[in-house]
Write a structure and sequence with these properties.
By secondary structure, this protein is of the alpha/beta class. It has a single domain (34-280), classed as NAD(P)-binding Rossmann-like Domain (Rossmann fold, 3-Layer(aba) Sandwich), CATH 3.40.50.720. The protein is 35% helix and 13% strand.
Amino acid sequence: MTDVRRPLPPQPRQTQSPPGHTALMEPAPDHGEKSYVGNNRLHGKVALITGADSGIGRAVAIAFAREGADIVISYLNEHEDAKETARWVTDAGRRAKLAAGDITNEQFCSRLVRETVEAFGRIDILVNNAAFQRTYASVTDITAEEWDITFRTNIYAPFFLSKACVPHMKPGSAIINTTSIQSRQPSAHLLAYASTKGAVSNFTAGLAEMVAEQGIRVNAVAPGPIWTPLIPSTMPVEKTQSFGKQTLMGRAGQPAELAGAYVLLASDLGSYMTGAVVPVTGGEIMI
C-alpha cells in the first residue's frame, strides 16, 4: 500500500552536487510537515540536532518542536534548507537557532554546545545525525582524505559533541546517534560510510555504559534506505532510481517515518532504554 507521499520506485532520473538540496529532489521528501502531531512529550526541553537542515534531521526537528522542544539546527552550509527547517520549528511555537559550521572540527563542536547553553540555558537532547558518504567501485579509488573526512564527520563529530554536552546534561537527558543498516549489512560501494556506522553503533553501546550513573541515556536509530538529499547527491543515477526497492516494503522510507523513533528515545516513553539500536529499515533485517 502506498500514497503520493511514499511512492514506489523507480524514482525519476536525477543527480545533484554534494551535499544536495531538498528543493531539487523529485519526489519531494516527506518530513512530517503536514502529518506529525505532537503530544507535549518534550515540553521545555532543548535539543541540538546535527544535519538538521534536511532529511532525517529536519523531520526530527519538526517532531521535537511539535513535542515542545526548542531546537538548535546544526548544519554545514545548506543555508536555505536550514532556514526552511527553522521556519517549521517557529511555526510550531518553539525557538530555533541556526548554527552553520564544520562539526569535524572539535573547537567548533565545543563552541556549538557552549552557544546552545548560553542561548537557551540548558541542553537536554543531543542528536548526532549529520553524515557524509560517497560511493566507490574499488577500494583503490578511496583516498586517505576521503576516508578521513568520512570518519571525522560520522564518528569523530559525535564523540566531540557528546564530550562537550555531557557536563551540561542533567539526569533524564538523552543522546541519540544515527547509525545505519549499513552497520550490519555493509554495501561494498559504501565501504567508508558503512565502516563508520559500525563504529557509531559500538560508540553508542560504550557511551551508554559510561554515562549511565549520571542518568543520561544513549541510544541509536538505524535507518534503512531513506529518501534524503544524500541519495541523489552521492549515488549513481541508476542506484538512485531503484533506491529502496530491495526492502520488504519495496520502497525507500521517508524522513517522517523515522521521527517517532527519535521522539521515543528522547522522551520518557523510552525511559528504560539505553545502549539500544532501534532499526527503521522497511523490513531489512538487523540481527
